[in-house]
Design goal:
single chain; alpha/beta; Chorismate Mutase Domain, subunit A; D-Maltodextrin-Binding Protein, domain 2; 4 domains; 5-stranded mixed sheet; 12 helices; 15 strands; multifunctional enzyme; prephenate dehydratase activity; Bifunctional chorismate mutase/prephenate dehydratase; Preph_deHydtase; Preph_deHydtase_CS
Length: 367
């Protein structure tokens, strides 16, 4: 028995020595990468280039390659997350990216911002989607992060409406798996809960679970899940529905995990900025089109895409601000606007539309 233990201890010691050796090699390579990032910044400054330190298409390509090279046992998502943080830290040496997101702290939008830009970005929570657009337009931040649609509850109309009057472009997208938890504070009495706070979208995404477990409890919609988490800190008879980040931030206890009605519940977020993004090799394009109110208008809008084999991924309709009973179409499709077939399709759509605005071509979300 002692011999077995001795062999086991030797194996563990050898493995730990190897891990220490690998850690040293990783640290050296990360330092070399950071040095290269600093040299990139020096070259850009020497050439008088406009401070485009963050390149969405370049970062997307790096993340895709990291996942393609991944041989396990880490998942592709974990590998991409590790590389994202390395890139975020290296980019901060050149010029930290300033990002505004729909706050407050602890929301899923903050989680999406961290997933896309990493923890080294300078992020700022704002109270409304309009404010995020305004901060980016004013140049106070480089980019904004706003929600645009949920797989259960559909599109976030307020985000689409802001594009009607904004000249900002979509520079990227993030898809986030959304897990909702029921949480309470240290003063909450679990057997005496009379109200549950959450954002209206989250309450809707957990409707069946709430009907089954808390059918007679009042459901109170608030501005955000983080606001819900904050409220229950001072109420002995209340609970909140929010995500992991809010539970950690406000020190709440999770009473029930993953209570969303659909296990594949996810939300798509848009990255908005002022710069057009070159092709990355795997892109999407978003378009806003106003059509004349006449028979066959929708057919005329969609026909060029069919003819040029453009894969539409979403078509959404919103009332126009120019008059009653006129509508604007928001369209997403696979590909970059600079691709010849897509450029030709856009040209044909523009010819039959009363107004057309390309909201941006950008890398497809990486996991």
């Amino acid at each position: 028995m002692s011999e077995l233990k001795e062999n086991s201890d030797q194996q563990l010691a050898q493995l730990r020595d190897r891990i220490d050796q690998i850690d040293g090699e990783i640290a050296q390579l990360i330092s070399e990468r950071a040095e290269c990032a600093l040299k990139v910044a020096e070259v850009k400054k020497a050439n008088g280039q406009n401070a485009l330190y963050y390149r969405p298409e370049r970062e997307a390509q790096v993340l895709r390659r990291a996942m393609e090279r991944n041989q396990g046992p880490l998942t592709d998502e974990e590998m991409a997350r590790l590389f994202r943080e390395i890139m975020s830290a290296c980019l901060a040496l050149e010029e930290p990216v300033k990002v505004a997101y729909l706050g407050p702290e602890g929301t899923f939008t903050q989680q999406a911002a961290l997933k896309h830009f990493g923890n080294s970005a300078h992020s700022r929570p704002l109270a409304a989607i309009d404010e995020v657009f305004r901060e980016v337009e004013a140049g106070a931040v480089n980019y904004g992060v706003v929600p645009v649609e949920n797989s259960t509850e559909g599109v976030i109309n307020h985000t689409l409406d802001n594009f009607l009057t904004s000249n900002l472009l979509i520079c990227g997208e993030v898809e986030l798996r959304i897990h909702h938890h029921l949480m309470i504070s240290e003063i909450t009495r679990p057997d005496a809960i009379t109200r549950i706070y959450s954002h209206a979208q989250s309450l809707a995404q957990c409707r069946k679970w709430l009907d089954s477990h808390y059918p007679n409890v009042e459901r109170v919609a608030v501005a955000s899940n983080a606001e819900a988490a904050k409220r229950v800190k001072g109420e002995w008879n209340a609970a909140a529905i929010a995500g992991d980040m809010a539970a950690d931030l406000y020190g709440l206890k999770v009473l029930a995990e993953k209570i969303e009605d659909r296990p594949d519940n996810s939300t798509r977020f848009l990255i908005i900025g002022s710069q057009a993004v070159p092709p990355s090799g795997d892109d999407k394009t978003s378009l806003m089109v106003s059509m004349r109110n006449e028979p066959g208008a929708l057919h005329d809008l969609l026909e060029p895409f069919r003819r040029h084999s453009v894969d539409l991924t979403r078509v959404e309709t919103r009332p126009s601000q120019s008059g009653n009973w006129t509508y604007v179409f928001f369209i997403d499709f696979v590909g970059h606007r600079d691709t010849p077939d897509i450029a030709e399709a856009l040209k044909e759509v523009g010819a039959c539309a009363s107004d057309m605005k390309v909201l941006g071509s950008y890398p497809r979300g990486v996991l």
